Amino acid sequence: PPVSVATINPKLVWVALICDRIAGRLKVSISVLKCEYAVRGEIVTHAQNLQQELQKNPESLPFDEILYCNIGNPQSLGQQPVTYFREVLSLCDHPALLDKSETHALYSSDAIERAWQILEKIPGRATGAYSHSQGIKGLRDEIAAGIAARDGFHASGDNIFLTDGASPAVHMMMQLLISSESDGILCPIPQYPLYSASIALHGGSLVPYFLNEETGWGLDVDELKKQLEEARSKGITVRALVVINPGNPTGQVLVEENQKKIVEFCKNEGLVLLADEVYQENIYVEDKPFHSFKKIARSLGYTDDDLPLVSFQSVSKGYYGECGKRGGYMEITGFSPDVREQIYKVASVNLCSNVSGQILASLVMNPPKAGDESFESFMSERDGILSSLARRAKALEEAFNSLEGITCNKAEGAMYLFPRLHLPQKAIGAAQAVGTAPDAYYAKRLLEATGIVVVPGSGFGQVPGTWHFRCTILPQEDKIPAIVSRLKEFHEKFMDEFRD
Ligand SMILES: Cc1ncc(COP(=O)(O)O)c(CN[C@@H]2CONC2=O)c1O
Predict the structure, then answer these.
(1) Can you point out the beta strands (E) in 102-252?
(2) For 169-195, what is the mean pLDDT?
(3) What per-residue confidence (pLDDT) applies to 500?
(4) Of 16, 17, 31, 321, whose CB is crowded by the most CB atoms within 10 A?
(5) How far is ligand 1, taken at its centre, from the CA of residue 432, in Å?
(6) Where does residue 205 fall: left (phi above 0), alpha (psi -120 to 50 degrees), or beta otherwise?
(7) 474/453 Cα distance (integer angstroms)
């Protein structure tokens, strides 16, 4: 009888596929086979199967809904889009509305004005046309102005590449940096698996550096040096350093002094600094404001020519959470004209990113200002979402830390908690008996008992012998108490079952 992939050990599937590939029977490349993306991996597939069962027979499982806490997808869990952004987007998408008198009764005057300004930046006001391969120049200039206002240092629209979210920008940079397995990219462990997946897809080598859980997921430059030297001793040419700040899945926010050391490290070692800053607006602690690496580099006196730096931003996070609109950019500085030409060439192969995402990225980086008609309502929506995220982060952190055998660092930023499971040996043995990582075994048992979907820590990487899972802080606030009670009930039973 057909056997579901969920019950076969994924490693065996992988070996079988590789053998098929070597035998020439399978047309999928080895790099694709090596690629994994746990955020939408085996646990999520199992959850989707359970959801179908629930739809067929609502009484079939010990819960009545699946709660997807596996992915940073705020609007899928009830978060509302920002009114002003949607007003401007809808007017730009259907400019004929701007000629109708009734529009003024439906839209704020500053949204109407902003839509006119944006359309004036688009050749022929044609939002349905291909744009420049870096994105519409006028929108890139808007974004550059927003970056300059954020950092207090000059930014140029010529250095902005607008992309369909930050993901394709990361893939583009990996394509440019990696020629073979001897090219290495320093990545944090735990890391957001876009990086390990992209490095695998491009045939490169991931050079891990471990964040320190004991110091709140601190990034220690001595660890960077150690891993860099080890990679070089194996003949790997390390091309770049990835830093995710605020961190995913770990939620830490870097302090300025640490960032300065990281910039100096990249400068001294001749590394490209890939600064993933998609959670720059998700900061929940007063004493750790966000500083972009662009700002840090300029404050150290490094100019455009001193340090190759790529800064990634997205419209998927923050208080806007517009994941499905696919907007974002990379700001590239410190590259020679020849290299910039190659970056442009790669971008031009994809023609351009979607224009709605481009418009949204310009709104995110240049939102309403004091005095604008929409400013008060915009700030009320923004602050309401961010303060609620902070409360949810704290509630879940406290819940995890109240459970036997779980410790959880604070989520200082981003959208996730990454609690550590101190599992009894019996539980580890039970997982090994079914050929599953202990944290994946826990996550599957949690899902089957409560409907809560989390991602096993093994999907992000972790210090060997430690086990974690990642849970988003995104379920709406009124659902958090039910999640906490379901989680507590499951966990207490699990520990009773496996206590040594
Ligand atoms: C650190 C980081 N960088 C880049 C991205 C890509 O974002 P976009 O392509 O949407 O701009 C994500 C998405 N976060 C994933 C998606 O949801 N949960 C996650 O961990 C991310 O967490």
Answers:
(1) 160-163, 183-189, 205-210, 237-244
(2) 97
(3) 83
(4) 321
(5) 31
(6) beta
(7) 12
What end-to-end distance do the CA atoms of the chain give, in Å? 37
User: 220-241: per-residue pLDDT in tens?
Assistant: 999 999 999 999 999 999 999 9
Nearest CA to ligand 1 atom 16: 72
The two structure tokens encoding residue 359 = 């418009």
Cβ atoms of residues 326 and 357 within 8 Å? yes
DSSP bridge pairs for 345: none
Q: Which amino acid is at 481?
A: P
Residues 204 and 274: their CA atoms lie apart, in Å, by 16
Q: For residue 424, how far is the Cα from the chain centroid?
A: 32
At 40 the pLDDT is: 73
- Whether 473 lines ligand 1, by a CB cut-off of 6 Å, is no
| Element of type H or E holding 201 | helix 194-201
Q: How would residue 305 be classed by pLDDT, with cut points 50, 70 and 90?
A: confident
8 Å CB contact between 208 and 258: no
Q: For 256, which DSSP code?
A: H
Reading phi first (left if > 0) and then psi (alpha if -120 to 50, else beta), residue 221 is in alpha
Cα 103 from Cα 277, distance rounded (Å)? 37
Counting residues of the chain whose pLDDT is more than 70, the rounded percentage is 96
C-beta of residue 361 within 8 angstroms of C-beta of residue 329: yes
The rounded distance, in Å, linking the Cα atoms of 446 and 452 is 7
Give residue-wise pLDDT tens across range 2-33. 444 434 465 677 677 777 777 677 677 877 87
Q: How far apart are CA 382 and CA 360, in angstroms?
A: 15
The reply to whether ligand 1 has any atom less than 6 angstroms from the CB of 278 is yes
The ipTM value here is 0.99
Question: What is the average pLDDT score of the chain?
Answer: 94
165 in contact with ligand 1, CB cutoff 6 A: yes
Buried b (16+ CB within 10 A) or exposed e, 227-236: bbeebeeeeb
The angle that helices 337-349 and 166-177 make with each other, rounded to 10 degrees, is: 130
| Number of residues that make up the chain | 500
Tokens of 82: 């920002």
What gap in Å lies between CA 373 and CA 181, rounded to an integer? 54
CB distance 192 to ligand 1 below 6 Å: yes
Residue 325, H or E segment: none
